[in-house]
Every structure is written in C-alpha cells, then in structure tokens.
Specification:
The complex is a heterodimer of chains A (114) and B (112). Chain A is an all-beta fold and 114 residues long. Helix content of chain A is 0%, strand content 57%. The radius of gyration of chain A is 13 Å and the shape is globular. Chain B has 112 residues and is mainly β. Chain B has no helices and eleven strands. In chain B, strand 9 (86-94) and strand 10 (101-102) form a beta hairpin. Chain B is globular and about 40 Å long. Classes of the chains: A mainly beta (114), B mainly beta (112).
Chain lengths: 114, 112
C-alpha cells in the first residue's frame, strides 16, 4: 500500500460546486502539505500543517480551505470551484528533523472544473 | 527574492549522453537544495540534495554541482537512459523554515 494516499485520483466537476480532496498517510509524519501543479509553474504551496492544531497558509491559499482531522489525514476543500482551479493537486508529508528530511508525495488528484 | 529559476523547460538527450539541468536563485539564505524526479501519474520523489558547504555531490549517475558565488546549481545525469525520462524539479529552502521553493520543472526525454 502507498504511504501517502490521495482520493479521488481524478475528478471532473462544474463551476460553483464544493469539492473535497482527501489525503491520508501511514508514515507517522507530523507535517503535511497541499500543492498544486500547473505546467510551466512547478509546484505551488496551498496550505501546510505541522500538527493537528497548526494550519498555515501557503503561497496560493485564496479559494481553498483545509482540515487536519487527525495526524494522518489532511483534506483540501474548494468551496466554490472555478475553472482556473483546474490543476494537478498533490499532498505531501515530512517527518520532524533537520531540513534534509525529504517530502513524500502522493500520486496526485487530477481536477477538472468545467 | 524567493524565486528559483529552472532551465531548460524541456530537454531531449540521446541515450548514453549527459543531461544537464540548471537552476538559479536569489535568496542567499537558502541552505538546502534538493532535486526531485517525477514520472507520469506519480508524485515527485527526492532524487538527490546538496547543502552549500560542498560544491558537488554524486550519487551513482546523478551529480549536483553547486556554485555559491554565482547562486546556481545544476543536475548532471551521466550515461542517460530511457528510464531517466521524467520531469525534474529543483527546489530550495531556508533554515528552520523547511518550506521548499520550487523551480518550474524540466521535462527530460531520453531517446533510445
């Protein structure tokens, strides 16, 4: 089984709909991240969480919200989806320790908003 | 100040050749420089990383070269193989922040 699992893997929805993307991990890591990937733009950080009670905005948090339901679960919501939120979304985790701890990524959710 | 600029956007290399991807940064406080490799349908995975106290780090066919004065670092893939075809991202982070600032990515194709 994958260490970082994202659901759904693909989603097509309409403008204005509320959408939730879910991430769960079995790595026991405290730190979790949500990124979006767009061609030519790399990965941009949406939100990150250092533990259940610690949620922080990233570079592009507008239009998104998150919930850290447990150490192992971190969900991303689009309250009212718009077409320019069409992208590939990744969840990642990282353990505590010095900066050379790698981030571990799920396989992504491809989201299309019509 | 926070950007990491990566080039080229795409690269085609013959099997057995050397692939070179470059990144430049402005923030002199960055102290950790990883490269991630991403295959289609998968998330990025750490490939190799370097700290600015060394000028080069080699792991198998993959080498990072780091030039602190020029604020540049590069990934070299020796004897490139079709299985190396992937998208490569450079990134950087600063101190205890550990937030990665990502380059735009390079799509590498190795022709057999």
């Amino acid at each position: 089984d994958a260490d970082v699992t994202q659901t759904p893997r693909n989603r097509i929805t309409k403008t204005g709909k509320r959408i939730m993307l879910e991430c769960s991990q079995t790595k026991g890591h405290d730190r979790m991240y949500w990124y979006r990937q767009d061609p030519g733009l790399g990965l941009r950080l949406i939100y990150y969480s250092f533990d259940v009670k610690d949620i922080n905005k990233g570079e592009i948090s507008d239009g998104y919200s998150v919930s850290r339901q447990a150490q192992a679960k971190f969900s991303l919501s689009l309250e009212s989806a718009i077409p320019n939120q069409t992208a590939l979304y990744f969840c990642a985790t990282r353990g505590k320790g010095p900066g050379n701890q790698p981030q571990h990524f799920g396989d992504g959710t491809r989201l299309s908003i019509l | 100040q926070q950007q990491v600029k990566q080039s080229p956007q795409s690269l085609i290399v013959q099997k057995g050749g050397i692939s070179i991807i470059n990144c430049a940064y402005e923030n002199t406080a960055f102290d950790y420089f990883p490269w991630y490799q991403q295959f289609p349908g998968k998330g990025p995975a750490l490939l190799i990383a370097i700290r600015p106290d060394v000028s080069e780090k080699k792991e198998g066919r993959f080498t990072i070269s780091f030039n602190k004065s020029a604020k540049q670092f590069s990934l070299h893939i020796m004897d490139s193989q079709p299985g190396d075809s992937a998208t490569y991202f450079c990134a950087a982070s600063e101190g205890s922040n550990y937030q990665l600032i990502w380059g735009a990515g390079t799509k590498l194709i190795i022709k057999p």
